[in-house]
Amino acid sequence: MRSGFALAILLLSGLAATPVVAGPVAELKLIAEHPVDGMRGGNLSGLAMCRDGLWAVSDRDDDRIYRLDTSSDVWKAEKYGLDVPPVPDSGLPWGLRSRTKAASFIRGGDLDFEGISCDSVGNRYIVSESHAAVLRVPFSGDYGDTEWLKIAPSMVREARASGMLLHFNALFEGLAVNPEGNQIWLAAERERRGLISIKRPQSVWDCDGACVLLSEAGQRMQPAQFPGAKAVSKDFADLALFNGKLFTLERNAFQICRRDTITAQVEMCWSYAEDSLVPNRRYPQAYGLAEALVIDADGAWMGIDNNFGPRVDGEKRPMVYRFAAPAGGWSAKP
Q1: What's the CA gap between 182 and 211, in Å, rounded?
Q2: pLDDT digits (tens, 9 = 90+) for 96-141
Q3: Which of 51, 63, 104, 215 has the most other CB atoms within 10 Å of its CB?
């Protein structure tokens, strides 16, 4: 009875948080783009601005993260090796885990790092999509001194009960951590997409009330600038936390949306389609490729995971785009 009641509450809360954004959204202005050299596995899948610079992860590299040297137009990825301990059981079913393991032999990246975030001290938190787990890399000490967060299994159970984390390669795609390092938001990618919050009152990360802030299905049209635009699954590609608000990277809609951290309700969205889909920047791939997001007062850093595929202009390296902050700033009202 208790679990059935909890499921009803989760589904109702997901419906209540379903965003309704009326009218056109403002376009962000692209002001710079930077190819990234030196990422062994390519596939830039996460960005974070930490106290010691800009950091990146690749979903093909399990044993390293990268600090980006941004001193020139072409950025250099500096490797920092990781000694990753065995992954704990998060409660994902055997079928999902076995498909991930099989895929890793073909493409690389058993851990499938899909997002990175930092607290105010500089500790890095990295989400493993394939294992629905979060790795903590301390700011000080040896980079081999990493640990998996102890997350209560109720988190995965609630997410799956609400329709998320059911499909291969459609699990956690991004995360954001608060400055104090005691709350994490996780983004489930698609079919259903959603947002989850966990907190750390003691040593175990757990739900504070309901874990699931949003669970949402459905499709939406790709932007008109996208060649052969069609209806595709709503998705989340990354999360960022700025000035007490969550910012979701909505890859297939080519939008960044500001959301409430408690309800996940959309407050404002901005499109990045116009400048990122000019002919020379297009990729001959069927979906959006933005996978990494950092928000600051002056704008947004956005990482492109091109799966080694070239743009129309021939550029094959991972790219980081810089967009200017919208008129009125990220706190602008509709």
Answers
A1: 15
A2: 777 766 766 666 668 999 999 999 999 999 999 999 999 999 997 6
A3: 215
| Distance from C-alpha of 301 to C-alpha of 294, rounded to nearest angstrom | 5
Which domains does the chain show, CATH number per domain?
2-19+29-324 (2.120.10)
What is d(CA 108, CA 101) in angstroms, rounded to the nearest whole number? 9
* pLDDT, tens digit (0-9, with 9 covering 90-100), for 267-288: 999 999 999 999 999 999 999 9
Provide the β-strand partners of residue 232.
220
The most distant pair of C-alpha atoms in the chain lies apart, rounded to whole Å, by: 60
Cα within 13 Å of Cα(247), Cβ side: 25
DSSP string, 190-246: BSSEEEEEEE-SSSSBB-SS-SEEEEE--EEEPPTTSTT--EEE-B--EEEEETTEE
Q: CA angle 136-141-142, nearest 5°? A: 80
Residues 6+ apart with CB under 8 A from 328: none
Contact 115, 45 (CB under 8 A): yes
How far apart CA 130 and CA 156 sit, in angstroms, is 13
CA 92 – CA 185 distance, rounded (Å)? 19
Burial state string for 179-212 with b = 16 or more CB within 10 A and e = fewer than 16? eebebbbbbbbbebbbbbbbebeeeebbbeeebb
The secondary structure of residue 72, as a DSSP letter, is: S
Query: Mind listing the pLDDT tens digit for each residue in 138-152?
Result: 997 666 689 999 999
Do 54 and 68 form a contact (C-beta atoms < 8 A)? Answer: yes
Q: How far apart (Å, rounded) are the C-alpha atoms in residues 280 and 269?
A: 25
Q: What is the pLDDT of residues 179-199, one digit of tens each?
A: 999 999 999 999 999 999 999
Task: Tell me the torsion sign for CA atoms 218, 224, 225, 231.
Answer: positive
**Residue that has been written with the tokens 């704990």 in this structure:** 88
Q: Any residues with CB less than 8 A from the CB of 29 and at least 6 apart, and which?
A: 275, 323, 324
Listed residue (63, 238, 227, 78) closest to 137, CA to CA: 63
The answer to whether 30 and 276 are in contact (CB under 8 A) is yes
